[in-house]
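## retry 2 of 3
previous attempt timed out at serialization; input unchanged, resubmitting
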Amino acid sequence: MTNKIIKFGIIGCGLMGREFASSIGRWCHLTDSKAKPEIIAICDKNETLYPWYTDNFSSITQCTDDYHDLLSNPDIEAIYCAVPHNLHKDIYIDIINAGKHLLGEKPFGIDMEANNAILQAASKNPEVIIRSSSEFPYYPAVQNIYQQLQNDDFGDIIEVEAGFLHSSDMDPNKTINWKRMIEFNGEYGCMGDLGLHVFHLPLRLGWKPTSVFAQLSNLIPTRDNGKGEQVPCETWDNSTLHCNVDVNGKSFPLTGKMFRMAPGETDTWYINILGTKKSVRYSTKQPKTLWTMNYEPGKPQCWQYEDLGYAGLFPCITGHIFEFGFTDSILQMWASFVDELAGGDANGFPCASLQETNQSHSIFTAALKSQKNNSVESINYETV
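## retry succeeded, writing output
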């Protein structure tokens, strides 16, 4: 039963800001929430974005183009921040130092230096809860996989492949945006924007790569700037990271794929885990279907599938027979964060942690070095 209101501000009122706001509009969908978020303030340099929020949320009493106004607002307890990567360091640190809880967008800093600075600010403000957005692990099938890996005997892990594929940049005539500009997106390119989606679950399972060989591609080196001029398009379109993971004295390959140019893919997240006793595979292409294979010597090796119903980490009014979708995963992710703010344990699966963002930065930093040197690079996990 919801009995506590947590007042939020939003910094960055674009696509994902609207997704967060609309999830609040669906909060009654949850049947057992300790608290409910309420948006009371928004901030964006583009004032034309304000009316959508104010028309739909009467609770909003502050609209500003200066995020410091939100930090000085004593009524705001927590902030969702969705801004370009080059702004993460300064804004996230200011939010943390202001004592506001934070759910921010990946990659939590344009590079490792920025991420470390954010972690240092967090270490000085331990009372502030800080998490990163990452929706896909909240699909019922992914939660099912996570629980199986906690409880079942997969034997030795043979191989893992995880990826996030979409085709948003397939059109060579698409106008350049900030995600294709190094000064705003950073040198990670597609890894910075998509990478935590790929590595969140493996890192949560303790599968930290020890080395990486990277194959990065910049397939369209120039794009139109909206004025009929071709300008450099310098960030990586696609990345394939061939990693090695050591667990309990044994190693296995982990391949992570992050593609902006994947023909035929609208927005596909997937993971395949092969073990000597049990294997699983899942893709959001078939959002309710989980494939499993149990191996016993002398018996047929047969994949079996189960169509999972609507079974989120946080209970909802939706009947079990219905399907789960992306907006449901966003609601579940936000329920996890708000549960922590209300003193809960996120039902055992908190949003991506600062440590996990730092680990992903270590992977991507090594991947850049690998691409530059055409080499296998060791991954150094820094402790801040």
